[in-house]
Every structure is written in structure tokens, then in C-alpha cells.
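Request:
You are asked to prepare a plain-text protein record giving the amino acid sequence and the C-alpha cells, at your earliest convenience.
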Amino acid sequence: MEQLCLFDSLKEKVDRAIRLFQTFEEMALRMSQKGYYLAFSGGKDSVVIYRLAQMAGIHFEAHHHLTTVDPPELVQFIRRDYPQVVIDRPALSMWQLIPKKQIPPTRKARYCCEVLKECGGEGCFTVTGVRWQESAGRANRGFAEILGRNVKKRQEIYLNCDNDELRRQVETCVMKGKRVLNPILDWTEEDVWLFIRKYQVPYCELYDQGFRRLGCIGCPKASFKNRVREFERYPGYQKAYIRAFERMVQVRREAGKTDGNWTSGEAVFHWWLYGGSKSESQIDGQMEWKDLYETFPEHCTGREEGIDMAA
């Protein structure tokens, strides 16, 4: 009985997701002759929205933004099982970006996401696999949104419900911004896996090897345990980060900026990996975030992002 209820609930969510795709397709085609711009990371949520778009029978083109720190198995999976997905290469690799920004990517300084992952879909109606369950920060996201430019963060998101009034408002809104569709916003992780099993959707084998997220290797948003595990599995990426941090230190010195305790690429890497909470710190004298703000004020704006993107 419980299993039947789960499938009934999933069917309702699938039907609504398909209706959302179909509701805004005309607008997506007005914005781009290819239709929706589907942001495809290769993760479990991405393969679900890809299949839903196919089931909806709408026009779309899927794009994967190569970050240069993707798990090799993920890139191979996309090329093998989703050959129609367009793979876009960034203008700068992560290893070039770190010395350019002169600061490591962190939870509060996520310039890498903006440059490597969020730069596509200009002028298109973008589809994402964002879900409320993933984080508290996504609780105010809507099924269909207009992300405005040059406005305060809380005003960027246009909240919605699935009705005709929403369609009218989104289609006639004159705000300059990016239109986004989040068709599986209220899906749980269980919903996602039920859908994948039910419709036999191809997914990356890393999930069967204990991975729960397939983001960039070393992503500071991941847990400490996962980051350590990733670097144990992919030691070449750890070496690449250390080389990039070494170049970053050299660039800072050439610019006349103080080192703090970032005396080498190795030292920066240890601060970056172990220098978070007290329970995770393993090296004496490593920087806390307050030390970073004091030592490198030119990169810190006091906002949540913690970095001036114009730097």
C-alpha cells in the first residue's frame, strides 16, 4: 500500500513537471529557436529533467559546462549515454582561474560557480534540476522564476504557483533577467530515484560506488569527509590544486600583497581543506575566515559571497 502511494505521488509530480514544460514552451521558442536551454550537470537530477523534457515532447537543447574539475567518470558517462548533450568548455580552467582571482574558491567566495558553471543560457529560458530538499537556501525558489539583474538578492526571485496567472506574469514581465524553470523543485531524493528506476533512466555509475553528489572535485560546498575521499580517489587533482595555489601565491607576491600564512601552494591547500571548523583543523596556525577578511580585505565585500567579483 505504501509503495502504491509513493508511485501515485510521483505520478502527480511527473504530470505537473510535464505541464510546466508545455506551458512555457511557446515563450522558450520565442526566446530561442532551439527552445529551452537545459542545464545538464550529469547528476541524478539532470538525467531526470532530461527525460521529463523528452516525455513532454518539447523543444530543448541540453548543455553541460565542463568545469575542468569534473570526475572523469562523469564526463565519460555524459559522452557515452547522452551524446546529444552539448559540452561547453570554459574560457578559463580552474587552474587558470585561481591565480587570476588570487584567492582559493570557498563557501563564501564561490567565483568558480559563476565563471565555470553559471555562464550559459543567456537569452534563453533555462531549465534546472534545483530541488527544495537540497538546501535551506533554495527554500524560496519557485517553479518558474525571473532572476533579475542589479537588484538585491531577496528581490531576484519571482515566486510562483502552477496556474494561468503565473504564465501571464512571467510572459509579460519586462524586468531584464534570466527566466528559469525548475520542474522538479518539490521532488525528494526518493522521488528522483523512483523515477530513475521506473523509467530506466541511465545514470552515472559513481552513485553505485557510494557517491551522493557528483559536483566538482574538491568543491568547498561538499562535506569535509567527501572532499578528503575525493582527493584520495583522484590524487592528480590534489596535485593540480597545489600547483594552482603555488601560482596564486606567486601572483600575490608580485602584486605586493602579504602572504599571511599562505607561504606555498601546499600551505594554501592545507588551509583550504582543513582550515574550516575547529573540529576539522589539523594544522596549527591556519587561517580562520576572520583572518582572511583582515589579511585580504580587497577581496572581501562583507556580503555572503565574500568576494568582489570585479577584482
